[in-house]
Amino acid sequence: MGNYDIIVVGAGPGGSIAAKIAADKGYSVCLLEKEDLGKDGRYKACGGAMAWELIEKIKFPEDKIDRVVEKLILHHIDGEIYSKQGKGAVIWRNKFDKFLTDMATTSGAELKQNEELIDIKKVKSDYKISASKSNYSAKYVIAADGVNSPTLRKLKWKKFNKEDLILTITQEMELDKKSIDERLGNDEIHLFFGIKDFIPMGYAWLFPKKDAITVGWGNQIGKIKHSKREFTKFLNIPLVKQSIKNAKLIRYTPHLIPMGVRSILYNDNVFAVGDAGGLVDPISGKGIPYAMMSAEIAIQTIKYCEKKGKEEKMGEMYNKKLDRSFLSILKQKREFRNKIFQNDEKLKSFLELWQTHRSSEIILKNLL
Asked: Which CATH entry fits the domain spanning 2-42+94-160+260-334: 3.50.50.60, 3.30.470.10, 3.20.20.80, 3.30.420.100?
């Protein structure tokens, strides 16, 4: 049995950052990953658009960036077009996630690949994890294993409500860079909206990479009647149809993402971070920065409470730190999302404001 101070389940952005920071702080850390990351990482269904501030913060190498973007084009399917300025990058998640995992192992975390969590139980003061190849134990567990978190499911944490889940469909379409630039511009990404005739609670997207376009669609589960048919409707929008003409389908992946925070984020030395905790922007769908921030806060909480002898306060402190950082506004955004998607008139008013304001600013200043 491998004995550690902290076991992190899931080597995505949240898990890898948690493992790195914990190792940097002197903890023995096991990073448990169910898949084989190999040399280039594993595919993740994701548009891959990142704010430039995040790229700079982690010093992500420029040669791993597929496209630098300067503009977000917001399309309403009735023809209205809005434009939001802002520098960002479009990346392949396998490269991004592997970069962070390598940072974690460089700091001293032990990566265990092809190790799927089978069971987890609390025995006295430690958690015992049975995995597909071996057994592990640790005082603390960081659940960074996604919206369907096997860790939290085995520990009988309450599931997400249905109205807090979005089903996404992602297609990766291979196409030469020249064609992509001509059809979609060389520095733009595109979002598509329309409540009445398109997506009642969500949006679709075209995110160009260097020689591929990520074509995606996402809708609240309870409002989906026939996902493939609704996704096909998106593919038949004239701009979308023209953009992917003669492109080769290289991957088709359905995926769930949370749009509401879990009822609890900590219990008895177990921390939920990232998608496992529902820490995703309910309006934009942005999750990676919150996964990384929640991971950092979880490790800071462990370190601080141990140092001060306040281990019984960990849950309270974790939630307070999350609230101060971003959790409070995420919860407000979850309520505000219903207001945005009341009807197309409200949606268009929001898109117009979103051109020049952050969504958090629109909410806090009551601009809509």
From this structure: 3.50.50.60
